[in-house]
Every structure is written in structure tokens, then in C-alpha cells.
Amino acid sequence: MLYKEPFVIYLNISVCLILFLLALPTLLNKREKLKVRLAYFTVFFFTVISTCIMNLFVIHFGNYKLVSILFIWFFIPLLFGPAIWYYVKSLLGYKVKKGIIFSFIPGAISFSYGIYLLFVSNVEAERVFGAVMSGHHLFYEITNLFPLILTIIYCVKAWFFLSKLKISESEKLYVQTKLKKAWAKEFVFYIFVNVFIFIILMLVLIKGYDVPPMNMDLIGMPIFMLFVYLLIAVRTMMMYTEFEIQYVVSITENTKKIQEQRLEISRDVHDNIGAQLTFFRSILDELKTSSVPLGETVDHKIEDLSNCCNDSISELRNTLWVLNSEVIYLEDLKLKILNFINKSSLVKKNLIFNTAFDFSDNITLSSKQAVNMFRIVQEILNNAIKYAEASTILIELKQQDNVLLISISDDGVGFNLNAKSEGYGLKNIKARVADINGSVEIRTEIRKGTHFDIKLTL
Predict the structure, then answer these.
(1) Predicted confidence (pLDDT) per residue in 141-163, tens digit
(2) Which domain-ending residue is among 241, 258, 275?
């Protein structure tokens, strides 16, 4: 009996090790979702290796006392087909519905029969084991064939799913998804063809040439599956390399498109609103310098409109700064804040601004973070300048790893923080902090100044 030869042990152990090494790179590939990796590992490694090990312990060593474990363990190879279906759907981002549970019914029946064999006598266990070894145990023969039939069913099911699947060109990662679909079809095709050939080969050899079924289980199956998985493993590594390339290409293209859109928006804002504000300011400047007397009241209104127009142009430039910057660093934010403080000190000459910046790394910021951080500081300083009646304002920005601490305090009149209605400025500050997942603490008392502590994760 060939399956009893010593080389069968080395063959099965070698196959197990090779399959493990082939499956490991995909299992450790963190670019892919964990459920996809686990499904692939189950198809590639778990079901086949567990079957090889069980066949060795029970069939090769002729241990009739473990015949019950042989039937209990059958639910593992029955996972082969469902795992293929789960892998294909998860790879393309689809959930697997409850229908997969029905495929576990044969496994449950085999498991129950194995439990029954645990409690039979040694004589009965030896009789069942003898029937299995001689190929005359019908339930074992059917159960042994069922994982292959179930695999064929799930391969057909997966093929129809992939054939009907439509991928929209508007999807963010269209090329990568298209590649994954092509790979999934190729994967299903390899499994289907090879399992179908193995079924035909097994039936011909066992029924036509009286090859013992145990030779197929312990020699034919490991060799055949090793060949199949070597082919699939090579193709998998090639496809995942292509996925990585296409992922980088897709991200680069999307970043380029976003940058182009931002440039278009900034041009439109600058050309339309900016041009109108500049034209408006030039008219006001002409009225201010007009030789015709306009009256004191009109002069004041023109002055107010001119200041408002200058403020609008300044705000427009701040918006364009964010839109036009491909990458924004903490140092850029620091310079923008210092620029705003310098302009404010020219307006409020009797107000002293003290600043302290402590950045361990010049971390990059998203446009959303940058604009909100600047607006938060701007809003707090504007409120202090207008209402606090302060003589000194202290602005501190400190970076600790990926956390930015913003501290702004003044020695002004303070306000009642417990008042029923908050001002618009305070609500706006809290809303902006929340928008970038930060926290703000405000400490203030009447005639004891105001202190803002803001914590932001970069």
C-alpha cells in the first residue's frame, strides 16, 4: 500500500510548509483588508494543510481510534468553497449574505456522526475504520467528495457574480477595482478547472484502475494541490504588485485633479471677487481724494467702506493662501499668524502682543486644519482687540508629537462665561475647533482677563 510508505510523511509535511510560505506574504499584506487576507489564507493554507495533517495521523498511521476525529474534522475542508466565495466578494468590497451558512449543513452532519463514533465500542470503531480504508464506507466516500462538489458550485456562483458586476468609471479607484475583478475571475477559473480535473482524475483512477482512495488522499491530493497553489501564488504576487502600482497611480491622479480644481477655484475667486473688490476700493480712493467737498458724514462712511473693502481683500488673500498651497506646514501657519499680529499691532498701537512658538517638527497640515486653525486664532484675537480693553495679549503655539496646543490669553475686562446666550464669535470658535476634532477650554472672569486653551490632533 503506497500511502503507508515513509515518503508520504515527508511529502505531506513539505506540502504544508510550502503552502504556508506561499500564503504568508498575502496574509501579512496590510494594504488589503483583514477579512480578505483571512479568506485567502483559509483557501490557500488552512483547509488543505489541516486535511493533510489529519490524513497523516488517522489514515497513514492506521489509528482506528481516531476515526471519529476524521469525521469531526470534515467541516474544515468543507470551508474551501465558501472561503473562495467570501474571498472574491470581500476583495471587491461586497458583504457576504447569510446564504453561505447552508453550505455548513454537510459539515454539521459529518460532525454529528463523528461525535456518535466517539461513544461506540473499539470493535465498532475498528469496523468503520476498515470500511473507510477499503473504500466501502459510502458516507465517507460522499463526504470526501462533497468539498470538491461544493467548491465547483461556489466557483460557478462567483463567476456569475463577477460577470454581472459593473464597475463605474467615476469610481475613485476605477483602474484598481477593474484589476481586482480581472484577478478574481482568473482566480476562480484556476480553482474551478483544477478541482474539476482532480474530480475526473480521482474517479477514473479509483473506479477505472482500482487505485486505493487513500493513495489519492495522501499522495494525489497534496501533489495536485501544491501544483495548483504554486500557480495561484505566483499570479497572486504578480497581481498584488500591479495593484500597488495602480494604487499609487490612482492616488497621484486624484491628487492632481484636486489640485487642478483648487487652482481653478482660486483663479475664479481672484479674477471675479478680487477684481470687483479692487475696483470698488479704487472708486472709494477716488472719492476720498476728490477735490469736491462731500461732507463729514459721507467722508466717514467712505472711510468705513474703504476699511471694509481692505479687510475683505485681506480675507480673500487668506483663502487663496490655502487653496493655492499644495502642502501647508506648521511654519506656514506660524508666519500667517505673525503677519496677522503685525497688522493688528499697527491698528492697535497701545496693545502689546507677545508670541511663543515651539515646534519640534514642521508637520504638514491639511487645508481644512490650516484654515480652521488660522481662523480660530484670528477670531480670538479680533474679539480681544475689539472688546477686551486689554494692554497685553499672549499667543503660544506648542507642538507635542502629533498634538498642537494653542494658548491665547489677555489681561482685559473678561466676560461672564455662564451667560445664557453666547456671542457669535464664541460659537464660531467652538464650531471650528470641533470641525477639526479638537477641544477648547475657556477660563475668564470679570476684570481678570480671558484665557483660551485649545488642543488639536495633527
Answers:
(1) 888 888 888 889 999 999 999 99
(2) 258
